[in-house]
Design a protein that fits this description.
It is built from 7 helices and 12 strands. The protein has about 240 residues and is of the alpha/beta class. The protein has one domain (about 5-240): Purple Acid Phosphatase, chain A, domain 2, CATH 3.60.21.10. The strands form 2 sheets. It has a 6-stranded mixed beta sheet with strand order 4-3-2-1-11-12, with no helix packed on it. A 6-stranded mixed beta sheet has the order 5-6-7-8-10-9. Strand 9 (about 205-210) and strand 10 form a beta hairpin. Helix 1 (about 20-25) runs parallel beside helix 2 and helix 5 runs parallel beside helix 6.
């Protein structure tokens, strides 16, 4: 019988702001087989801060690390971030990746995600942002339709459904995530869907039609999140659980 996969996930380190909080549970990374970082590793485009995040990870973990860009990994520094983390972090930018871990095929899709309502800054500075978000929903849907594996994991920086926005002011919910993604999740049913960005979220874990949805934003969780695939609880084989 195969061993269970042990997966760690976090986001919104905003280094240096939450770096110490990340470090406080980083010692547990030695238990993991895969680390997923769902964006905003650095604070407001400060590329050099990525070095400190990498140091915190590699002090305890040498396995595969995948990440998506958050809103504070500005577009103009994406390539520099890729270069700076080469050999340690694989960045997925509306892209898919398949890994073989412990004999399991793990399909991964990483995306910055989209918003129901672009921020005022985005509307001023990113031409065609509404169209970009609309297109991205379709891209994620297509990638999930094509993705193969024993387990399929979608990770996004922006929130993927309204339920996990609870705890934030409802007036800003449209600028925290994309309600249209729930249709994608219901249609494509990935094993797990992970997001960050929701710093004040109170509902950190829910299920939608068999897909486990996790908010792994560090300010909300106060620690790195760990879960297993598959797991067995109460005689039933649900897809995943915290360990």
């Amino acid at each position: 019988m195969k061993e269970m996969l042990r997966i760690a996930a976090s986001s919104d380190i905003h280094s240096p702001k939450n770096l110490d909080l990340f470090r406080a549970s980083a010692h547990r990374l030695k238990e993991a087989d895969l680390l997923i970082l769902a964006g905003d590793l650095i604070y407001k485009g400060r590329v050099s801060e990525l070095d400190h995040v990498i140091e915190a990870v590699t002090a305890h973990f040498s396995g595969p690390v995948v990440a998506c860009f958050g809103n504070e990994e500005f577009d103009e520094v994406k390539e520099e971030l890729k270069d700076r983390s080469r050999g340690v972090i694989t960045w997925l930018d509306d892209e898919a990746l398949t890994l073989n871990i412990k004999g399991y095929i793990v399909g991964l899709i990483g995306t910055r995600g989209c918003l129901d309502q672009p921020t005022s800054w985005q509307l001023r500075n990113i031409p065609g942002i509404r169209e970009l978000y609309e297109k991205r929903v379709g891209t994620v849907d297509r990638l999930l339709a094509e993705l193969k594996g024993d387990f399929r994991i979608l990770f996004s920086h922006y929130a993927l459904l309204r339920e996990t926005l609870k705890g934030e002011n409802p007036r800003i919910w449209p600028q925290l995530g994309c309600s249209r993604m729930i249709d994608v999740l219901k249609r494509r049913r990935p094993s797990v869907a992970i997001h960050g960005h929701v710093h004040n979220g109170k509902l950190l874990k829910t299920k939608i039609d068999g897909t486990l949805v996790l908010n792994v934003s560090l300010p909300a969780t106060n620690e790195i999140v760990f879960f297993t695939l598959p797991s067995y609880e109460e005689g039933q084989p649900p897809l995943t659980s915290f360990f």
